[in-house]
Amino acid sequence: PCQAFTPNLAETYNKMKAAGKDFEIIFASSDSNQEQFDSYYAEMPWLAVPYSDRERKESLSRVFGITGIPSLVILSPDLSVVSANARGRIGGDPEGNEFPWGPRTLTNIDEDPSDANAIMDEMRAQGQKYIDSAASADSREFIFYYSNDTNGGVSSQIVTSFEDAPAGDGPMMILLDIPAGGKYYIHSEASVSAVKEIIDSYKAGSITLSQLQ
Fold it and tell me: What is the per-residue pLDDT across 19-77, written as a single tens digit (0 to 9) for each?
């Protein structure tokens, strides 16, 4: 996802600089090593936190609640947060006319407000984490699925087996514990941060599971 997002952001960045907008981007890398950082950063026209300063990068991730990449946080001159997740605004405003991409006074009702792409990216990242940590594909602690159709063959059967499924067609996140006899947990507010929060809460035993009917 980063490789697809960065060229678009660079194009918008250059247009905004040419238009005289007063701002700067600072890249904080999640690359695995200095070589990867050097190769990736060579494509970028903005500033960067030195790769060797991992403590600063991790501190920034904690402060701004970064759980998935790429992320774009917008700060005001006094360093207050204007937008904690401006990534989705780039595609709809490539000229930067709505910069600094704070809360909208008027929003297109047909736009997806759930930042579905970022959520999917975080699910992919978590899925890869559990693939990498498992002895085999069949022994993964968590397996991730998605559906964009509640009338799908399998997804419709799952949803209709919930006693407490939220009303409406909005996105939801579901944890299924099949080995525990078909128990589940529904999180009705889908978000990037919720992906890891649900996993961590399940591991800590702090969420209540219901029984599939």
Answer: 999 999 999 999 999 999 999 999 999 999 999 999 999 999 999 888 778 889 999 99
CA distance 54 to 77: 24
- Both tokens assigned to 146: 């998605």
- With tokens 């996802």, the residue in question is 1
In sequence order, what are the residues at sequence separation of 6 or more whose Cβ sits closer than 8 angstroms to the Cβ of residue 150? 156, 159, 169
Closest to 19 (Cα-Cα) out of 69, 84, 93 = 93
Tokens of 121: 């990216």
Q: Summarize pLDDT for 81-112 with one digit per residue, the tens.
A: 998 888 878 877 899 999 998 876 655 545 55
CA distance 113 to 96: 19
Contact 144, 127 (CB under 8 A): yes
Q: Which of 140, 138, 122 is nearest to 130 (CA)?
A: 140
**Rounded CA gap, 117 and 125, in Å?**
12
> Residues, the chain, total?
213
pTM as predicted: 0.55
Sign of torsion over alpha carbons 13, 114, 197, 134: negative
Distances, alpha carbon 39 to alpha carbons 5, 20, 32, in Å: 16, 28, 12
Full 3-state SS string of 122-140: HHHHHHHHHHHHCCCHHHC
Tokens of 94: 């490539």
Neighbours of 13 (CB within 10 A): 20
